[in-house]
Amino acid sequence: MFPPGFGEVAERLRRSTVHISSGGQGHGSGIIVKSDGTIVTNAHVARPGKSVVTLWDGRSFPAEIAARDPRHDLAILRVPASDLPAAPLGDSNRLRAGELVIAIGNPLGFMGALTAGIVHAVGPLPGLGPRKWIQAGVRLAPGNSGGPLADASGNVVGVNTMVAGRLGLAVPSNEVSRLLRGENPQPLGVTLRPLPVTAAGTERLGLMILELAPESAASRASLLPGDILVGAEGRFFSALEDLEDALMSNSGRVLRLQFLRADPNKIRTVAVQLGVSDSVAA
Q: How many CA atoms lie within 13 A of 168 on its CB side?
């Protein structure tokens, strides 16, 4: 049984949800978070290059990437439009298991598709480190990535990202607020997606490279899309934050990253020169 006013809440969310296409490389969803054309989505949806945002009313605009946080798979886009229907950001720290949530997106090309479910947990997921995920019983499909997960009042509490164990996983909205405040450095120049991998005979957290920015530290080090980062300076990752900590502590120096390429039984090492020129792969 849905609460009173559910239909109106869902309609407002639909109008705040956009379709994003990235130069023929795929499509996904986004959320208008400011009426001045500021949109949040997943970093793996807003890939480097030409992106086009289509609004609920059918208008389309070219989009520029204003900020990127591969660590949390988030990106901020801006389009040349104003007076857009923005969705309010909620406080994801107040979300509790058992609450009703709504997911809006564009799965398989269906604009503004809605699914509702119950929050199962808010917290870490085995195999993906200690970072928080909103884990909800909502049906997600390709094209839902980057769309809103909202509470029953229509406040966006998460950004839908992927499916694991038949549950939809969303990045908490408080991470979006941090990105909007400019608190997320990205010195490697990569778009990453977390996934569980087996390395050295043990299931660990891996960070798959989806995209590399031209002339970035990762590109100069000859890392490739599809490579999976599993550690830094000889220490395996247990959380996405471990990579950022390693980058910050080695700023301006050489950082040795461990990664998998093709053979899951062979852990390779690459020396990445942060902020300057050439790197050497091993």
A: 31
44 labelled catalytic: yes
C-alpha span between 203 and 126 (Å, rounded): 10
Q: How many residues does the chain have?
A: 282
Indicate if 27 belongs to the active site: no
Q: Which residue in 22, 29, 51, 145 is the catalytic one?
A: 145
- Please state, as a whole number, how many other Cβ atoms lie within 10 Å of the Cβ of residue 181: 9
Q: Each residue of 185-208: pLDDT tens digit?
A: 556 888 888 888 987 788 888 999
Residues linked to residue 115 through DSSP beta bridges, in sequence order:
103
What's the pTM? 0.68
Domains of the chain, each with CATH number or no CATH? 6-78 (2.40.10.10), 92-179 (2.40.10.10), 190-281 (2.30.42.10)
Give the pLDDT score at 68. Answer: 84
What is the torsion angle, in degrees rounded to the nearest 10, for the CA atoms of residue 7, residue 11, residue 13 and residue 18?
150
Catalytic residue, chosen from 19, 27, 44, 72, is 44
Assess whether 22 carries a catalytic annotation.
no
